[in-house]
Amino acid sequence: MLFRSGFTSVHASPATDKAKIQQTQTQRKDIESKVEMMDNQIEAIMSKIDGNKNNIAKTQDNIKQTQIDITKAENDIKAEQILFDKRMRVMYMSGSSSYVDIVLGAKDVGDFISRIEDLKNIMKFDQNVINDLKTKKAAIDQKKIALNTENTKLLSLKAENEKKLADLTKQK
Known about the structure:
The protein is rod-shaped. It has 172 residues and is mostly helical. The protein has helices at residues 14-93, 99-104, 109-171. 87% of the residues lie in helices and 0% in strands. Helix 1 (14-93) runs antiparallel to helix 3.
């Protein structure tokens, strides 16, 4: 029995090997530079996220403080409203609900003029109280809307940045 074995020798040319090594090194450098770029982008986004977290914390502190201010203002409004309501109730119950009755009850010209001046001051005071109540209520509503808008905007920005970070991390 005679066995023959055939060997085929495979010889790669040194030029081909060098070209493949060079190509692989170039690909490696490209990949490394892409990874480095992505790392830089990730760092930038993480920095934005940290900044957003700080802004969110500040906004939440502002919201808490504003809520305290709003509660105080609402309590002040309630107190002023109660005072105004009591005054109106007393005027009604005493039978002096009509300003004309007060003026006509004057005993002489001096008393008449004095009563008119008093009524002017009372009416001006009442109008100022009403305007002040309206202004305070409007300011409170405006602060609530502004804070909610700012908080929503920051939370949206945070979510957007976290999505970008997740996408870049996935790409990397």
